[in-house]
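Quick one, T. Sequence first:
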Amino acid sequence: MREGAGAAMLTLKEFLAREVVPALGCTEPGAVALATARAREELSTDQVERISVRVSDSIYKNGMNVGVPGASGETGNALAAALGALAGRADLGLEVLRDCTPAHVRVAKSMLSEGRVEVVCLPDVHGVFVESRVESESRTATCVIEAEHTNIVSVSVDGTTVFRKGRRGQGHGEGQSEGHGQGGGQAQSQAADGAEDAAADDRDIMDGVGYQDLLRLADHMAPDEIDYVMHGVDMNKAIAEYGLASESLSGLGAGKAIWALMSDNKIEKNLAFLIRSYSSAASDARMAGAQLPTMSAAGSGNQGITAIIPVALVGESLGLPKEAIARGVTVSLLSTSFVRSRIGRLTPVCGCSVAAGAGAAAGIAVLLGGNWVHAARAMQIVLSNTAGIVCDGAKGTCALRVGAAACEAYLAALIAVNDRGINSAQGIVDDTIEGTADNVGRLNAEGMRDVDRVLINIIEERVRRSEMM
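Structure tokens:
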């Protein structure tokens, strides 16, 4: 979609296909695994000798401490890279590690201990960028992902390009020569150029679309669109119930802790705490690497949890039919992507707290009988409350933010549909939801430039201290 094209050129089917897709585990190590899996497919043998991966600071940060699906709680981008090359199926997208087994994990860990897997952070490259290089005894294949977690833009074998995708999805043919022996500086410069294009691509789907027009996409949903959205509801509730019931792979256990407090009558058994418990439990399981998929939103499984579960639980509590619940969830998903398009796909800002929390508030407001004005007001309330929350990487404590955002979304919607809340520009809040989202994006881009660098240094210093003990 081009600048000023408006909502008429964006269909709900296209939106769902691009922004709402199943993902297994955290999407950042998932993108790493996808890149190594796709590269390995070009080798004439399954025997992998060495893996080298270059990633943006955002991918590096989010993959450092998060569980890898099928790895029994083991974490890290390097493990994901090895498992992608050993067991990954690129045709499954972000469910690339669906077929991972304990035997694959043992081989992957051996490769790591032998120093045959390397992951390098490109500190000046932001957003989604992964360049994987997989070597057999006789051949080398490289795969590059940019802009979005499943957006493979090039694949090469022994320096010859076998696939290249244009910036706007136009193929450039096969057999083009591509030098992979360049120095680190040139590679980093190319990655930075790609990341700038990624930021532009990230906004394309929302370019020229006002918020009121965007929500109209949810007004007339086809039966297959309703079914697809409700499939996402079932998927995300299933991993939440796993997180509540599981004795293992439950991560931080935040969801189970809240559930126990309600069961012991230490806190009130109400919808707000039910939302917080379910949402946290789903993130608990996902961050621990449970081998259950989630329906993602705007490139993130945790955003999908935050955008879908609270809206669905409110709809169910009201006894609404699936068509109404699907519409509310769709409003949430559209609103999440609306905010995400302003702040970027991977940023120093916590997308669950900011984008998906705001999106869920809008979806709940609609289920409570509100119109687009109430939905926008609910988003304004959340954004004024959460705009400065940083993303310090994907890990167990994400469950706390997911649960908090989900609960705040419910409260913001209740305030908004009762015609209360913010009614004037103040602080980061503008007169319109478009202006507020732009302000949050500006805060992220201009005001938080060094956040990822500082966070990565903190995490790496802790790793070094633990290795010295």
